[in-house]
Every structure is written in structure tokens, then in C-alpha cells.
Amino acid sequence: MACAEIQFTLPSDEEVFRMRETEKQRKEEEKSKNSRLKIYDKTTASSKIGNIRRFRSDDAVRQHSELQLMHLNIVLGMVLFFVGR
């Protein structure tokens, strides 16, 4: 079994420096944009984590309420069955 030749080539020095400059410029623009925002408009890492937790708890509440609704439907079905006799 022959080894496949790896097609990866390193970018030239010019490309590396150009990518670094582009990334640096993008970060500067983002920093400049964020500096003009009010604190309540900014997104922080901790607020992102809080949102994930909130969504998880919302899912748990939704699943619990769906389970309660299913139980209620079963009870109502049984009541209607026995009342209808």
C-alpha cells in the first residue's frame, strides 16, 4: 500500500504577513466598533455562557410542562371514558 503524497504547502512569507496584517486590521476595527458601544450593548463571554444555561433551563421547563400536559390528557381521557359509560 503506497502512501498518498501530501498536497499541503506552506504559504509564502508575503502571504503570512498579509494574513497577519488583515487579522490585525479586523481586530482593530472590531475594537474600535466596541469602544463606541454602551456597556449594555456589548457581549461578554460570561453573558454568552449565561444564555446557554438559560436555554438549557428553558428546555427543561418545556419538557416538564409537556409531560404534565400528557398526563393531564390521559386523566381527562379516562374521566371522559368513565363518564360516557
What portion of residues is helical? over 70%
Terminal Cα span? 77 Å
Largest sheet, described in full? none
C-alpha geometry: elongated
Count of separate DSSP helical elements? 2
Structural class: mainly alpha
Strand content: under 5%
Question: What does the radius of gyration come to?
Answer: 29 Å
Average pLDDT: 80
Annotation, overall tally of beta strands: 0
Q: What's the order of the H and E elements?
A: HH
Q: Can you walk me through this structure?
A:
The protein is mainly α. The protein has a domain at 44-85. The protein has 2 helices and no strands.
How do the helices and strands line up, and which of them pair or pack?
Blueprint: H1 13-35, H2 45-83
Task: Fill in the keyword field for this structure.
elongated, mainly alpha, single chain, 85 residues
Brief overview, please?
The chain has 85 residues and is mainly alpha-helical.
